[in-house]
């Protein structure tokens, strides 16, 4: 029997462009800029990683909104989160506790005195997602999230009883979710009050669990991605609204989310406002996922987003407004064919601003409560966050394909952006990205026009042939947008010497709900046709003669990884010299090993036992006999969304067939590769693979020949 061995990762010399993986992963990463009350300054978080010292760094910074100057406020990594209390004061979480191991603290600082502050509260466990309101100058009402035992007691991992065994027993779902096994401790909300004592704020009494008295076991923020947008505090500090999955429904099979309201002091149990009933137009209330509860400025209304269909995570979000006095719920702008992801009230409470994907960009829309439909007010880039300033302008945090998050003042009347901080002006790693050309293009797809992006290298020369990197996005209900990414960045592939094409086929978001919905039970159908037609369009259009189609590669992750495995056995796969599959599925019949079962049950329009043919119909495993293109398979051990057995199956088959192939796994990563050192390996190995198969114009798919097998064995022995 052939011995098994672990092959050390080798990094051959790569011919890279000006923008390298090191640049991408070491460049500063900025969070949203949050303004103070007067709009004079904003606070933002900045983090970076050094591959020289192999260490991260982070800081909290002030941005002068008049001139764009920045000042470091704190460079201590224990400062976890920070919010404004007024124009001058800020409240922040210290992730350590000098008195309680495993605890945390709340500190107060002043913007005029960087690096200084005082402790206002000692908390018995680690907390996060800090939110505040100040009902008066003498008190601050705050809410944080923390893990809690089933009885509501806050959970401290350091003081918790230690088990002598590692067994985990389940009689209900989830067993594991995203990248962790489900535990009894759930995320809860805790409220507290800081009161002015002399010239300093102090914690009035112990923080109180606001969700412990609810009917059933509820969790908020909702795992695995929930955060501070899952709850809100009324302006008077008397009420908290939050979202949580419906407690009596199996969370793995249902997406229904309820919106709860609860007194800030926890004097009564949380009550759902949208469990049953009808809206003001007489339509039944929706049964899908709800999100983003936000109180109006005077606290008389609560806006939130909700989908109608239970079990469909990519249904259209509709804006609903709950009136606190009458308990009535009104659905707004139902005919609007976009799905908002965030909302913001105007100062007078008569207008709501929304962010939503639209034709490859996340834009801001505005609508008066009585308007028929929201109107687009921004058109450029990807709006990551927005805040209203007293002047009537917006403070916008925005990124794009050629820039990480920068800060802008946006005037809604003139539709003009004033630059406050532009990363390509201040970050050395991004300095040359302004030379990158990004183009929109469209073509006739399977049933309708399909949109995509073409990204050209900074040294692009139309008189020369340039290799092609064809990117396929995940989701499948997702989209390539004009936005920045440190994981799948089209610009990085462009600067490595490729024309980078990113298509949004059937199922993509931002092109109307019908286009998104059309992928149901069509995984290898309409989207595959769209992708094939995009290649046909590029090949047959004289405008794109600069693309060297003899040196084309295709890459995809998640659903994009599924599609890579699918086209491996289809005619489209023969157009590429090499393929890269990251965390993709191989056998659709195995998809019940995933965590969120509602996903395959919606995508394949039924269950595996009632509609098995729907699962086998588009399975890549049905076309193994047609495989032949060299393929790089990446699959991580902590990916519980698509278990590693899917990637191993693909690699085992490729190796058994003698097809040139490579496998990469990270035992400590999930569906994504998030750690900088691992990310560097990922990018280097991916670029090495696609460069290897596009350096020489040759038919690389003589994969089953003895020559290919000999070369593969020789490579393995290195």
UniProtKB/TrEMBL annotation:
Residues 1-17 form the signal peptide. Its main location: secreted. It is found in: Secreted. GO terms for biological process: proteolysis. GO terms for molecular function: serine-type endopeptidase activity. Keywords: Glycoprotein, Hydrolase, Protease, Secreted, Serine protease, Signal. Belongs to the peptidase S9C family. PANTHER family: DIPEPTIDYL-PEPTIDASE 5-RELATED (PTHR42776:SF11), SERINE PEPTIDASE S9 FAMILY MEMBER (PTHR42776). This is Dipeptidyl-peptidase V. It comes from Tuber magnatum (white Piedmont truffle).
């Amino acid at each position: 029997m052939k011995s098994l061995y672990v092959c050390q990762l080798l990094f051959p010399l790569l011919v890279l462009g000006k923008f390298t993986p090191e640049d991408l992963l070491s460049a500063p990463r900025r969070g949203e800029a949050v303004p103070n009350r007067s709009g004079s300054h904003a606070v933002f978080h900045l983090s970076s990683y050094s591959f020289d010292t192999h260490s991260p760094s982070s800081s909290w910074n002030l941005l002068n909104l008049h001139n764009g100057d920045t000042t470091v406020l704190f460079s201590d990594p224990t400062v976890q989160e920070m919010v404004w209390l007024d124009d001058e004061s800020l409240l922040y979480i210290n992730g350590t506790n000098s008195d309680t191991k495993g605890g945390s603290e709340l500190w107060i600082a002043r913007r005029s005195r960087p690096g200084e502050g005082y402790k206002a509260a000692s908390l018995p466990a680690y907390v996060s997602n800090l939110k505040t309101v100040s009902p008066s100058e003498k008190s601050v009402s705050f809410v944080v999230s923390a893990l809690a035992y089933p009885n509501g007691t806050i959970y401290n991992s350091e003081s918790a009883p230690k088990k002598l065994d590692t067994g985990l027993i389940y009689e209900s779902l989830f067993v594991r979710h995203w990248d962790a096994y489900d535990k009894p401790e759930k995320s809860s909300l805790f409220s507290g009050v800081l009161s002015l004592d002399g010239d300093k704020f102090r914690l009035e009494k112990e923080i109180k669990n606001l969700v412990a008295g609810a009917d059933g076991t509820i969790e908020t923020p909702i795992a695995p991605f929930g955060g501070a947008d899952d709850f809100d505090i009324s302006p008077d500090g008397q009420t908290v609204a939050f979202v949580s999955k419906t407690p009596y429904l199996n969370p793995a099979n249902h997406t229904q989310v309820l919106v709860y309201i609860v007194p800030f002091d926890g004097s009564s149990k949380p009550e759902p406002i949208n469990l049953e009933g009808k809206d003001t137009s007489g339509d039944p209330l929706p049964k899908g996922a709800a999100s983003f509860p936000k109180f109006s400025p005077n606290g008389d209304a609560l806006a939130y987003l909700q989908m109608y269909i239970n079990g469909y995570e990519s249904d259209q979000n509709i804006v609903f407004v709950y009136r606190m006095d009458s308990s009535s719920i009104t659905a707004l702008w139902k005919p609007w064919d976009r799905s908002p992801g965030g909302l913001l009230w105007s100062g007078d409470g008569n207008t709501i601003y929304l962010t939503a994907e639209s034709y490859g960009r996340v834009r801001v829309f505005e609508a008066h409560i009585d308007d028929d439909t929201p109107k687009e007010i921004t058109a450029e880039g990807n709006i990551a966050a927005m805040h209203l300033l007293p002047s009537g302008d917006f403070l916008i945090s925005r990124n794009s394909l050629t820039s990480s998050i920068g800060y802008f003042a946006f005037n809604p009347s003139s539709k003009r952006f004033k630059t406050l901080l532009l990363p390509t002006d201040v970050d050395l790693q991004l300095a040359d990205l302004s030379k990158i050309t990004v183009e929109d293009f469209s073509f006739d797809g399977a049933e309708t026009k399909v949109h995509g992006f073409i990204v050209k290298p900074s040294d692009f020369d139309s008189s020369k042939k340039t290799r092609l990197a064809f990117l396929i996005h995940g989701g499948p209900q997702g989209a390539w947008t004009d936005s920045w990414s440190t994981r799948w960045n089209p610009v990085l592939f462009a600067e490595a010497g490729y024309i980078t094409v990113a298509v949004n086929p059937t199922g993509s978001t931002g092109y109307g709900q019908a286009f998104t919905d059309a992928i149901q039970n069509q995984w290898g159908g309409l989207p595959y046709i769209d992708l094939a037609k995009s290649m046909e369009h590029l090949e047959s259009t004289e405008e794109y003669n600069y693309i060297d189609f003899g040196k084309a590669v295709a890459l995809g992750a998640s659903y994009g990884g599924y599609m890579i495995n699918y086209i491996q056995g289809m005619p489209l796969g023969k157009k590429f010299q090499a393929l890269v599959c990251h965390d993709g599925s191989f056998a659709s019949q195995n998809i019940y090993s995933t965590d969120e079962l509602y996903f395959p049950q919606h995508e394949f329009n039924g269950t595996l036992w009632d509609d098995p043919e729907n699962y086998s119909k588009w399975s890549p495993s049905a076309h193994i006999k047609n495989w032949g293109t060299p393929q790089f398979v990446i699959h991580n051990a902590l990916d519980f969304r698509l278990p590693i057995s899917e990637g191993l199956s693909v690699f085992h088959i490729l190796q058994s067939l003698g097809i040139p192939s490579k496998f990469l796994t990270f035992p400590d990563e999930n569906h994504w590769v998030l750690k900088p050192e691992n990310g560097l390996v990922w990018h280097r190995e991916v670029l090495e693979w696609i460069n290897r198969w596009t350096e020489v114009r040759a038919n690389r798919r003589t994969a089953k020949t003895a020559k290919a097998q000999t070369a593969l064995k020789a490579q393995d022995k290195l």
